[in-house]
Amino acid sequence: MTDTRRRVKVYTLNEDRQWDDRGTGHVSSGYVERLKGMSLLVRAESDGESGSLLLESKINPNTAYQKQQDTLIVWSEAENYDLALSFQEKAGCDEIWEKICQVQGKDPSVDITQELVDESEEERFDDMSSPGLELPPCELGRLEELAELVASSLPSPLRREKLALAVENEGYIRKLLELFRQCEVLENADGLHHLYEIVKGIFLLNRTALFEVMFSEECIMDVIGCLEHDPALGAAPRRHRDFLTKTARFKEVIPIGDPELRAKIHQTYRVQYIQDMVLPTPSVFEENMLSTLHSFIFFNKVEIVGMLQDDEKFLTDLFAQLTDESTDDDKRYELVNFLKEFCAFSQTLQPQNREAFFKTLSNMGVLPALEVVLGMDDVQVRGAATDIFSYLVEYNPSMVREFVMQESQQNDDDILLINLIIEHMICDTDPELGGAVQLMGLLRTLVDPENMLATANKTEKTEFLSFFYKHCMHVLSAPLLANTTDDKLSKDDFQTSQLLALILELLTFCVEHHTYHIKNYIINKDVLRRVLVLTASQHAFLALCALRFMRRIIGLKDEFYNRYIIRNFLFEPVVKAFLNNGTRYNLMNSAIIEMFEYVRVEDVKSLTAHIVENYWKALEDVNYVQTFKGLKLRYEQQRERQDNPKLDSMRSILRNHRFRRDARTLDDDEEMWFNADEDELEDGEAVVPPSDNKTTKTSGAAENEDLMDPISKFMERKKLKDSDDKEVLGKSSSLSGRQSPSFKLSFSGSTTKTSLSSPPSSASLHPGSPGSPGSPGAKGSPPTAVTTKGGLVGLVDYPDDDEEEEDGESKEETPPLSKKSKLSS
After folding, report:
1. Does an H or E element contain 86, and which?
2. 592, 577 in Cβ contact below 8 A?
3. Of the candidates 82, 58, 84, which has an alpha carbon nearest to the alpha carbon of residue 69?
């Protein structure tokens, strides 16, 4: 058997019941040894005779193949795997169909080769016992009988198939439509209701051959007329035909010379209208019965887009009129709407075809045309142009970025496409800023490094971000900078606040995803200080946006940012907002506390020191969370390390010898250590059990002298440090900004409980913590313990451990001094 090559597209049906294009190639049929039978083969068109196989499918004797619309063959290879071949020519489809029917022993005149669903043997025997389904004569008096026959056949796939064949072979649809016209003239309501049920049932037969008759130019309006008379509506039928003939108008913004294309557009619009507006919403069981109707519309749209895309004269005229200054506003509005609908149709295309579609539009000059249209005053035209721009950005942002970088070499910043988009976002008149939200999403896509390309010769990310920060960022941030002059809000109305929140959202995205570009911009323009002015807004969502912006910056743990924050005292407005919020437990309270908690947990030393040294007085009375006391503890530990580098090094040595364990388990070495006999100990060493908190004394005068010397030195240094703190912090009882604070913080109490230089009380600091010299020196004190042997003194500090954990472990893990002396020797 000779191979016949025909040009086809291969489609597969996805989970969303949409057809995915698998490629274009040439189909042939032949015997495949591996599959042990005659098979359909499709080789990729671009690869020639030896091209890659797009499809290799054995023609199974029991598979149901369907021929649709004269150029489609559809079948199922598995339970959830549907395939379709769309032929360029009818002759090719007929020839392959004959091959399939020949293998299955079927007559090529049929449109389906097998029954779609296996049924019980009893039902199959009953149905096969009658050669076919006999329809009653098409007369007014038999409409009720016919409606009952259709309703009874729909549940059974076999009876449904026989009914479809009978309706198709007898030309029954045209006869029914003739009866419909008679019933309308006679105003026969019962007959019209029966015809509604019959025509709705014919739709559910899911048969392409019947759809082709029903959707033909001479029949489709009568079919819609039948569906107007829903019995549920009683004597008030819908007026779908009036809408289609009188209200809906087909506008040719550019004359379409191809009559086939015009007819296809009319048909697709009407069939889409039937699916969306005329047919009742299908039940769960009827959903799959309309799959052929979905496919009919889908392939029509693909065909329309392809025919328009290939018509270069049409597209050239379209863009020429769109950018022509002499084109009147109404005409331009129609042109933009047509282009918008054209792009919407393209969404039915598969990725490779859609890429070719947008490439065609790009070559025809769609972006320069949009730039002209977006600069116009007509709000409707601009809205439609924005929708077209969104299609382009979402599918191919790199194409848009390349265009705007090229035009920047020729045009001023004011008329750049991206700056036009930013200006429309800023000037959106909608109280809810619906358009601005859409435009902000497009800008976010354009500046997202994740979808930027990197090649051997150039890096799109570097080039585009340099362009954006040089030419566009000042336009984006202009409303923010203009509204926060003199460190106060100029306008605080709802619409302005919404706009500033959108801008802040985009700037926050830039902080997270861009590096030195946004850092340089923030520091050079002092952007963070301006943003923090917004924490005083009456709109909580805007104040929270400002806090989120600062939180993202702190989260980077970048010392450049930290030095900028410290130099400009930028925690001042945050603390002020915290105090103004008072005792309210709300999102503002939680967001600010979380920011300080992050600084504490991550131990950001420069910020910790800055906060405690400048804002401790304002925050020391906050005791419903331990965040601020924890910050003070971090700060004191940090100062202690700086003042006592020798102790810090000894602490690290001791930390290396500390083995953390679960309190419930002890390893073998530790068990041996605790179980050791006192006889094995050195002479003069005392043994103290771990649970005993008494002070241990070592024997020997020389050892006493060695021990007391470093302790006395440590206590002297401690006193000096405390006196220094009193001198430094005692100079001012309130905050002093940039040497001297620019605002005063008030407290709820009449007097301050404790000064920063005072030893913290038990409510303020954990007993025995650094900075509380009056705490007992027992071994049970969790953060600080003095361990001795000979001349060794160690301040053991574990700043990263939770205080409660340390409480629980100190008694079990701190060994007797005599034993520890052995380990550290």
Report:
1. strand 81-87
2. yes
3. 84
Nearest to 150 by CA among 128, 172, 123, 124: 172
Residue 547 confidence (pLDDT): 97
Inter-residue contact 219 to 174 (CB < 8 Å): yes
Alpha carbon 533 to its chain's center: 30
- Please state, in angstroms and rounded to a whole number, the distance separating the CA atoms of residues 436 and 427: 8
Round to whole Å and give the CA distance between 567 and 232. Answer: 76
Rg (CA), the chain: 41
- Report d(CA 281, CA 275) in Å as an integer: 9
**What's residue 693's pLDDT?**
39
- For strand 81-87 and strand 72-78, is the pairing parallel, antiparallel, or unpaired? antiparallel
- C-beta of residue 769 within 8 angstroms of C-beta of residue 760: yes
CB 400 within 8 A of CB 446: yes
Closest to 777 measured CA to CA, from 700, 686, 716, 715 = 715
Distance CA 710, CA 792 (A): 8
Q: How far is CA 370 from CA 252, 287, 361, in A?
A: 21, 40, 11
Which residues on adjacent β-strands are paired with residue 26? 7, 43
Q: Could you count the other beta carbons within 10 Å of the beta carbon of residue 25? A: 25
Q: Please, where are the H alpha helices in 473-626?
A: 473-482, 494-513, 516-525, 527-532, 540-555, 559-567, 572-581, 587-601, 605-619
This prediction has a pTM of 0.60
What distances in angstroms separate CA 107 from CA 97, 100, 104, one per listed residue? Answer: 10, 10, 9
DSSP secondary structure letter of residue 31: E
The pair of three-digit structure tokens given for residue 366, joined into one six-digit string:
């769609």
Residue 11 host element (H or E): strand 6-13
Q: Which residues contact 717 (CB under 8 A, 6 or more apart)?
A: 643, 644
The 3-state DSSP class for residue 726 equals: helix
Give Cα separations from 669 to 123, 205, 674, 787 (angstroms).
Answer: 82, 83, 9, 21
Q: Report the distance separating Cα 295 and Cα 553, nearest Å.
A: 51
Residues of the chain predicted below pLDDT 70:
1-5, 46-50, 78-80, 115-132, 235, 282-288, 454-458, 646-825
- Cα atoms in the Cβ-side hemisphere of radius 13 Å centred on 159: 15
Contacts of 756 (CB under 8 A, 6+ apart): 616, 617, 620, 725, 729
d(Cα 764, Cα 758) in Å, to the nearest integer?
A: 11
Q: Nearest to residue 803, comparing CAs of 771, 758, 767? A: 767
Is the CB of residue 83 less than 8 Å from the CB of residue 55? yes
Helix%, strand%, coil% for the chain, nearest 5: 60, 10, 35
Tokens of 317: 């005229």
The DSSP output letter for 63 is -
The amino acid present at 366, given as its one-letter code, is: V
C-beta separation of 388 from 336 below 8 A = yes
Going by C-alpha positions, the residue among 496, 572, 497 that lies closest to residue 528 is 572
Rounded CA gap, 493 and 505, in Å?
A: 18
Euclidean distance between CA atoms 771 and 765, whole angstroms? 9
Pairing mode of beta strands 6-13, 792-795: unpaired
Q: pLDDT per residue over 247-299, tens digit each?
A: 888 878 888 888 888 899 999 999 999 988 888 776 655 556 778 888 888 88
From 100, 115, 97, select the one nearest 37 (Cα to Cα): 100
**What tokens does 343 get?**
């792009």
* Beta bridge mates, 65: 75
CA dihedral (216, 218, 222, 227) in degrees, to 10, reads: 10
Calpha distance 739→75 (Å, rounded): 81
Beta bridge partners of 787: 794
CB 693 within 8 A of CB 780: yes
Environment class of 651 (CB within 10 Å of its CB; exposed 0-12, middle 13-18, buried 19+): buried
Give pLDDT, residue 670. 46
